[in-house]
Amino acid sequence: MTSGFQKNPYEGIDWEKVHFLPGCTHIHCRTQEHFARLVRQGMRVFTLSNYYPSAPCYPLREIRENALRMGQSGYFKEGRYCPDYVDFSKYSGVTDPGGPLFSGIPEDLIEAPNAEHHWFSDVSVYLHVTAPGAMLASGHFDIRDECGVRSAGYQLGLPLPWKEGFDLLLNSLIWPDGGGIIIAHPQWSHFSTEFICQMLDHDDRVLGIEVVNYGSEQSYTGCCESLWDEILRTGRRCFGFCVQDHLKEEPWRGKIILLVDDPSPRAALRAMREGRFYGAVTGEAKFEYVRFDGRRFEAACDHEVFFQVISRRGVEAEHTGMSVSFDVPESRRTQIGYLRLDARYGRRNDKLYTQPVWL
Questions:
Q1: What is the pLDDT at residue 2?
Q2: How far apart are CA 348 and CA 350, in angstroms?
């Protein structure tokens, strides 16, 4: 299963020069207060993932307060997708788009389209995905039909079989070499490993799963490291994303640190596609490097952390310190299969997750 993709996503990174860009592929943000909080807390790559409607909040400077209650580009009606603009003002009564939704947008902010899509026609409503880089809009604002939009035949969600829906999303990517689909909160969704593998096999632009979804902590389904390893043991490429989901009062928890030579939207989406990032809960700790030469797997952090080296067999090594290295025994390469690294800082301060490297 591993022959069709790059086995070491960190290969070739110049750790002295690379840009570390914090971002999040699944985060809801519809208010200036939340936006300002994310800016203050260091988010550099904005791929906001709202729903109702599942329409890209992009570009940020052009989003108006009431615009999505007036209409949107792209909708489903009678099971068919239409990319045209639909006017909802006759249902909502809103005719003034209002002022800019967000202000104080930093000049160096990096952004790309994204949304959270769900309600596919052939699986339960619990299948949710995000699609950084995709321009497709689905659903609409009138979830409870208070304005009569649903009664007029406009459908919520992405009401196609999931394979067709995935294809529609992937065909709307703004660049061919970046972004893709990420399976949201799989522990909360309760889908089988077999079904998740089917989704990963559908297209190599289905990138992986949310290993940490901090918003799902309230239902005790926020972390799925064992599920991730179960998928990796099948030999499939599956990147692990850390996300916030719904923003709470606490600091932003659940992020990815994208590793790019060029701090640009296309480079950020390409890093997601290629796995050139690591996951973090808070980002208080930082990987200074992650290297693998085919035999030695090594990494360093800027704080003393508790490292765990994990493979197909389970935990291969543990170490407390600022760096770690693990030499792959030649006799056990096949059994080990892949390696990834966790680094826990403090008791509940932070935890970092590398992407897997393959032997």
A1: 53
A2: 6
> Per-domain residue ranges for the chain?
14-283, 286-359
Residues facing residue 345 across a β-bridge: 350
Rg, Å, the chain Cα set: 21
Alpha carbons 111 and 314: distance in angstroms, whole number: 37
* DSSP conformation class of 92: H
Please give the structure tokens belonging to residue 199.
Answer: 């989704």
Closest CA to 227 of 211, 243, 241: 211
Quote the pLDDT of residue 121: 96
Q: Return d(Cα 142, Cα 150) in angstroms, integer.
A: 7
Listed in order, strand segments (DSSP E) in the chain are 19-24, 27-28, 45-46, 71-77, 80-87, 110-111, 116-117, 129-130, 181-183, 206-213, 239-243, 245-246, 255-260, 277-280, 287-292, 296-311, 314-327, 338-345, 350-353, 357-358
Query: What confidence score (pLDDT) does residue 193 get?
Result: 97
Three-state SS at 162: helix
Using one digit for the tens of pLDDT, what is the confidence trace for 76-114? 998 899 999 999 999 999 999 999 999 999 999 999 999
- Of 197, 208, 232, the residue nearest 131 (C-alpha): 208
Q: Does domain 286-359 match CATH 2.60.40?
A: yes
Give residues with Cβ within 8 angstroms of 353, minimum separation 6: 211, 212, 240, 242, 278, 279, 280, 340, 341, 342
- DSSP character for 137? -
Rounded CA separation 309/334 (Å): 16
Please give the pLDDT value at position 248. 83
Fold of domain 14-283: TIM Barrel (3.20.20)
Q: Give per-residue pLDDT as tens, 240-291.
A: 999 999 998 788 999 999 999 999 999 999 999 999 999 999 999 999 999 9
